[in-house]
Design brief:
Blueprint (H helix, E strand, L loop, with lengths): L1 H9 L10 H9 L5 E9 L2 E9 L5 E9 L5 E8 L3 E6 L4 E4 L13 E2 L4 H12 L9 E5 L6 E6 L3 H11 L5 E6 L22 H11 L2 H31 L2 H6 L2 H33 L23 H20 L4 H23 L7
Parallel strand pairs: 9-10
Antiparallel strand pairs: 1-2, 1-7, 1-10, 2-3, 3-4, 4-5, 5-6, 8-9
Length: about 375
């Protein structure tokens, strides 16, 4: 028993109250790197929550508590010490120690842990949306190898933002958080903000834009606002792409009615924001376009009225990226005067095309 007390003391985990939620949280708060798991367990008709935190550093590599669902009272705990095996503690205060690789002699009741499903992913996305973390954040959602958790990977975000994400996801079962301070390239949803200074625009084109918009200061303000809006358009389109990939028509049809409504609500939010941002961009650039040739009519979309909404999302994403590239090229790029004039001629059609694709989704209020 003295050896166990020493193990807990070295790991900065309370030996006096090992099954206390406060002891668990105090140990967890002191970890620099960690991964959290929450799952639902049902045994003999009774539901419990299994909360586990793993850490690659320190003497205590993993700690888990099982909490009774009705009052969240911890009933048992499991503690994996580096080089020492696993220590299991039950509510009766009895302690069982087993070497790594050797099964415990205790007989446990059979329990069932539910696998993660599409509804769990939807609830995570809905929770992230409530704090705006599903748009433009370097986040990635996957299932773990056992399909028992939705794993939320977050890369290179501040500790404050990590805490916000932790708080909003804490009530959800079957969620694992994986925070990484690095910011690897190519994470879905990331959008690198361009340099918004207009110094590289050719002088004749700059003078033309300044005359249309009301001077150098007005040109810079429009540039900042339009490019910020364009980056958000790409991020919102990516959020819709995530919804379409996780919830194809056959999966959406199997969701409970309440979850189908949640999914429609998320789509509606993104589409409303997209429509507003693109229309705002069109309004801000209207003085530039009025001096240009009449843009071509917006191309028709390839989605039939009865086709699932998911079929339009790839076209929406492609159109958003195309418009973003053109806007960045015109307002913050380097080009010749003829190339600039061609961009101005082409942009109105790209804007109208994107609006047509957005509105073809059928949930945009005009």
């Amino acid at each position: 028993m003295a050896h166990l007390r020493t193990l807990f003391a070295v790991a900065h985990y309370s030996w006096r109250e090992p099954l206390s939620s406060q002891s668990f949280q105090a140990w967890r708060s002191g970890l620099k790197r960690k991964r959290d798991y929450v799952s639902v367990i049902e045994s003999s008709g009774k539901k419990s929550y299994h909360v586990r935190t793993d850490s690659p550093n320190g003497d205590l590599r993993s700690a888990a508590l099982t909490l009774r669902a009705e009052d969240l009272r911890p009933t048992s705990g499991s503690f994996d010490f580096l080089g020492e095996g696993t220590v299991e503690i039950a509510e009766t205060d009895s302690v069982v120690e087993s070497d790594a690789g050797r099964s415990s002699p205790q007989v446990t009741k059979r329990s069932t842990e539910y696998p993660v499903g599409p509804a769990d992913t939807l609830h995570v996305l809905s929770a992230l949306d409530s704090i705006g973390a599903d748009v433009g954040e370097p986040l990635d959602l996957t299932d773990d190898s056992t399909h028992r958790h939705v794993v939320v990977h977050a890369y290179g975000i501040t500790r404050e933002r990590q805490q916000q994400i932790e708080n909003v996801l804490k009530p959800l079962p079957r969620v694992a958080l994986n925070f990484d301070t690095a910011s690897p390239a190519g994470i879905p949803g990331q959008h690198v903000s361009p340099e918004t200074l207009t110094s590289s625009i050719p002088d004749p084109m700059r003078h033309q834009l300044e005359a249309s918009l009301g001077g150098p200061a007005a040109l810079q303000e429009v540039t900042d606002r339009v490019l910020d809006a364009s980056a958000t358009v790409v991020a919102r389109s990516r959020a819709l792409e995530v919804l379409a990939s996780h919830f194809p028509p056959e999966v959406e049809a199997e969701l409970p009615l309440q979850d189908q409504q949640v999914l429609r609500g998320l789509r509606h939010t993104h589409l409303q924001a997209l429509n507003r941002l693109v229309e705002s961009t069109r309004t801000k650039l209207k003085p530039v376009f009025t001096t240009s040739p009449v843009p071509p009519s917006a191309p028709t979309t390839d989605r039939e009225p009865s086709a699932p909404w998911q079929t339009t999302v790839p076209s929406l994403m492609s159109s958003a990226q195309e418009l973003d590239q053109s806007l960045n090229h015109l307002l913050a790029g380097s080009y010749s005067q003829p190339q600039g004039e061609e961009l101005i001629r082409r942009l109105p059609g790209e804007i109208e095309h994107l609006l047509a694709v957005i509105q073809s989704q059928g949930t945009v209020e005009k």
